[in-house]
């Protein structure tokens, strides 16, 4: 007796595969299907970290699995809580070119699986950005970008974004009306951002492309806290794939009073006696074992919270990866974090180990589903 293999009716199968949650999960699975070299590197990184924790001194066997590259530190907005909103004289501004970016990838030696193509600044201000994405995809890397969205409505940019192979695009939208939006996104235009998102969504539909996945990010603050309940409906109307409501990072008690929301479950901090205390579930930092940050000029810093480049580990344009990643500066820095993480000012206010980085993050249900 023969058994016939079950297959979903074509129309139903298409609807099932077209659901945002399904598309997102299937695509993100790509992160967990490494090349042999990436997998071996993963095992080395994990083993080195575990031994470091138990021995109390840094042991580095692998190389970065996750890479953050800053295309530029220039920005077209002046957001008050962002380092780019008040440029530091300690850092010279500029842009990385695609040739320099290629050098970075080559020196990673095929070990990196995940690339965040931004740090400080607005990445789309770099004219080489889409070529960088295309190059990273040729190296088998999952690429994610975060943008303020103001340049998404440029002529032809949506077609080029899709052609580049970009996996994921985070678009910041921190207010649902013009007045609320402008309180934080100083110099920005809500209308322009919405138009840019719509243009990209329509281009994806026209090209029948599921990529890039569009994640609408809303940083919850005192001025927009009452709009959280409206976000799912706005996201559905825009046709994005995911929404992420993120807690705000502030740098002082004064900023806390001005920007932090009133509800404790909407904040990553406890505020006591004029002090900001991040709510953490753990004190250990894993980033220093699996992640590297490269600024536009090739300078390597421990993580994105070193906004002024105070802890310079080396320069990837002029040194080998091994010289930097396994060098004495990096080793000493990791040792100091193992001993007492809060002893470093940069580490006291970072996101590693936070109890609440996001208020919520979820897929957006399609209009048809």
Written overview of the protein:
The protein is an alpha/beta fold. It has helices at residues 10-17, 20-28, 36-55, 98-108, 129-138, 157-164, 178-184, 190-206, 231-238, 253-259, 287-290, 321-325, 328-339, and strands spanning 66-69, 114-116, 142-147, 168-172, 213-220, 242-247, 269-272, 275-278, 291-294, 299-301, 314-315, 358-363. It starts with 9 loop residues before the first helix and ends in a 6-residue tail after the last strand.
Task: Give the topology.
Blueprint: H1 10-17, H2 20-28, H3 36-55, E1 66-69, H4 98-108, E2 114-116, H5 129-138, E3 142-147, H6 157-164, E4 168-172, H7 178-184, H8 190-206, E5 213-220, H9 231-238, E6 242-247, H10 253-259, E7 269-272, E8 275-278, H11 287-290, E9 291-294, E10 299-301, E11 314-315, H12 321-325, H13 328-339, E12 358-363
Parallel strand pairs: 1-2, 1-9, 2-3, 3-4, 4-5, 5-6
Antiparallel strand pairs: 6-12, 7-8, 9-10, 10-11
Helix pairs in contact: 4-5, 5-6, 6-8
Query: Strand-residue fraction?
Result: 5-15%
Q: Which structural class is indicated by helix and strand composition?
A: alpha/beta
Work out the number of β strands: 12
Largest sheet: 10 strands, mixed
**Global Rg:** 21 Å
Taken from the alpha-carbon principal axes, the silhouette is globular
N- to C-terminal separation? 38 Å
The average pLDDT value, as a whole number, equals 87
User: In order across it, which strands form the biggest sheet?
Assistant: 11-10-9-1-2-3-4-5-6-12
Work out the helicity level: 25-40%
Order of helices and strands: HHHEHEHEHEHHEHEHEEHEEEHHE
Unreliable residue runs: 1-17
Quickly count the helices. 13
């Amino acid at each position: 007796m023969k058994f016939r293999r079950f297959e979903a009716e074509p129309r139903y199968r298409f609807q099932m595969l077209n659901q945002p949650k399904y598309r997102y999960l299937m695509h993100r699975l790509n992160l967990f299907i490494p090349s042999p070299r990436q997998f071996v590197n993963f095992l080395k990184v994990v083993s080195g970290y575990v031994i470091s924790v138990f021995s109390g001194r840094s042991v580095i066997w692998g190389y970065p699995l996750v890479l953050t590259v800053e295309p530029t530190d220039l920005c077209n907005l002046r957001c008050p809580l962002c380092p780019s909103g008040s440029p530091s004289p300690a850092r010279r501004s500029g842009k990385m070119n695609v040739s320099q970016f290629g050098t970075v990838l080559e020196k990673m030696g095929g070990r990196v699986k995940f690339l965040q193509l931004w740090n400080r600044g607005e990445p789309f201000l770099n004219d080489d950005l889409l070529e960088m994405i295309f190059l990273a995809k040729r190296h088998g890397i999952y690429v994610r970008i975060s943008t303020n969205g103001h340049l998404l409505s440029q002529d032809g940019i949506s077609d080029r974004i899709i052609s580049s192979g970009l996996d994921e695009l985070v678009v910041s939208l921190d207010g649902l009306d013009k007045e609320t939006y402008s309180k934080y996104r100083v110099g920005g235009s809500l209308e322009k951002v919405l138009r840019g998102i719509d243009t990209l969504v329509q281009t994806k539909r026209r090209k029948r492309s599921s990529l890039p996945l569009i994640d609408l990010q809303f940083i919850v603050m005192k001025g927009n806290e009452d709009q959280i309940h409206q976000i799912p409906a706005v996201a559905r109307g825009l046709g994005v794939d995911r929404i992420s409501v993120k807690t705000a990072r502030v740098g002082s008690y004064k900023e806390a009073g001005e920007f932090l929301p009133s509800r404790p479950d909407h904040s990553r901090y406890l505020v006591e006696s004029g002090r900001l205390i991040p709510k953490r579930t753990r004190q250990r930092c894993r980033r220093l074992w699996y992640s590297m940050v490269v600024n536009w000029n090739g300078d390597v810093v421990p993580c994105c919270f070193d906004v002024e480049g105070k802890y310079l580990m080396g320069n990837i344009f002029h040194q080998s990866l091994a010289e930097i990643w396994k060098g004495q500066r990096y080793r000493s820095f990791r040792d100091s974090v193992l001993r007492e993480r809060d002893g470093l000012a940069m580490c006291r206010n970072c996101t590693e180990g936070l109890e609440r980085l996001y208020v919520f993050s979820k897929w957006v249900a399609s209009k048809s589903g």
